[in-house]
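FAQ: What does a ligand-bound record look like?

Like this one, built around flavin-adenine dinucleotide:
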Amino acid sequence: MSEITRRGFVKGAALVAPLAFTRFTVTQTSSAPHYDVVIVGAGHNSLITACYLAKAGFKCLVLEGRPMAGGGTKTAELTLSGFHHDVCSSIHASIQSNPLMRNNELKLGDYGLEYIYPDPIYHIAFPDGSYITKWRDFDRTCEEVAKYSKKDAETWRRMATEADSIREILNEVNFTPIGFGKSLGERLAEHPKGKLWQRRMAMSKWDILHQNFEDERTMVAMMPPFPKLITAPYTGFSAYPSKKEDVPQPKGGSGMIALALSRYFEAHGGEILVNKPVERLIVENGRCVGVECADGSSYRADKAVLSTVHIKQLVNMAPRDLWPEDFIEGVKTFDTGAASFNSHFATTEPLKFPVKGGTVVPVHISNIQSCKRALRFESELALGEFHVEEPVLHIVQCSVADPTRAPAGMHTVRVLCEQAVYDLPDGGPGRWEEIKAEVAEAHLRAVQRIAPNLTDDKILARFSTSPVDIEQMNAAMWHGSCHSGTDGPAQAGAMRPVPGWSQHRMPIPGLYQTGGTTHPGGGVTGGPGRNAAVACGDNSSQLQIQAREDRPGIFKISRSTCRSRFSSANRRACTARRKRSSASSHG
Ligand SMILES: Cc1cc2nc3c(=O)[nH]c(=O)nc-3n(C[C@H](O)[C@H](O)[C@H](O)COP(=O)(O)OP(=O)(O)OC[C@H]3O[C@@H](n4cnc5c(N)ncnc54)[C@H](O)[C@@H]3O)c2cc1C
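The answer part, i.e. the structure of the complex:
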């Protein structure tokens, strides 16, 4: 039975023991416990799939390699007792558009999940003392933009109206498994302005920004949290503001979503075992029938093994000849993106910013100072350069909106840099231990430059994680990357994780994949998790697929349809669908 308790979730103990992967062994597995589905990893995505499968009546087991479930949705007392820091994610924005939340499919509120919507949304402080604060009230944000350019404020308003008219299309594409509905291109073709949007989306964020806005501060205001790949094609949509922008955070911390999902799963008969790093897939007669853990224990899956293991590791968990060459090549060319460096502080005061008529105390702050700095971010990433001068930082102080996160009057401050390099020049990953304190200090100084009120005497304790620590805390964060892999056109939609293998089925029969390496990618979206559940629950009948398109977001898995999904007849149907999907374009 699971040992997971509220206390277990918030304790930061044993965060840094690595998950080791060893060579293949031959094990006697006949006496291993049997389940319908064995799920490897307890991130929010695999927990979501697990919940839907358990709800449908399957006997499911989740094996988590770490001492706590949650993966990138974990909250822990990293500094001092009573200070609850989000180890990775804090913002749960995209998941709000997932039918899981939008239609309240799992009623996670009954299991303790509650969202807080911080206001303001973001504060961007410029070196000359000017600033833009983005508010939940869209008109108020437009007024902020109008301080520097009335024309930009009007454009901001027009662009938000235009973009919001197609956001639903993007949601439908993100929250539908590949091949189970129309592609983005097909959906846009049905929109009155679809052709225009195809062009805009294919453009770069930078092109859209500088074609539309005149004041540099307006452009910078569209860049937080990070100006990633802003000159790359297919980043155009992210240049568009929204009237509904929000930065929801779970009350009590990011880990509350994992806790609620775990509770739901267990209430529906599921089991979670922690400290169970899976090292090997058990394959018999060409089919994945279970897994073996580092401690030698093994677990059999009569219907399916569902993995959230990073695909870079997954291919090492079964003999090479079981993976087709094109799959291996797809994994080799999968770009995991930049690594991250994180510092957490327990403080006696939050960062405060002077604004007209007083001060503002936001939850989210960006220190992007100019377009030039943002553009350099990209070239530094491309060159694999890591600098501590002028770092681009996302500062998050969740306790400002949620007093349960710290003792009365105290605060949790996190400083995130998504521009770190895992394999450092002159020493490789091993050098991180040597330079960690220096990097954390440089980041703190950069924060203090924009928020001088956070003097050293206001800091009670600190805790930093280098890319190496992040990977050790969660093997799915390959080389310290945040989002499992970049989401450019080469690995989006039908290309994720590997062209031809985007429908959650892996090349070894019986093995399924979810998590950030699958569509629609990383972040706390729940998309890969729910999509995997939909894919498992589908019986491949065209009629059912059509019905789902008519009623996007509404689906039901029954034990019988799940069975058929896991059956060999269904596998044949899926193979045909997969071939169709791999032939389809980016979507
Ligand atoms: C510092 C940081 C800040 C971030 N901030 C945000 C944010 O604010 N908003 C946002 O949307 N996203 C954010 N992200 C990204 C987000 O956390 C991830 O994209 C998301 O958590 C991925 O969820 P997942 O369920 O796919 O996998 P994960 O959360 O990575 O979970 C995978 C789980 O599988 C387990 N596992 C892996 N391999 C094995 C194995 N072999 N055996 C057993 N268990 C295994 C891991 O231990 C882990 O628990 C951030 C990431 C980082 C690193």
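Follow-up question: can I read anything off the structure? Yes, for example: The chain has a mean pLDDT of 88.
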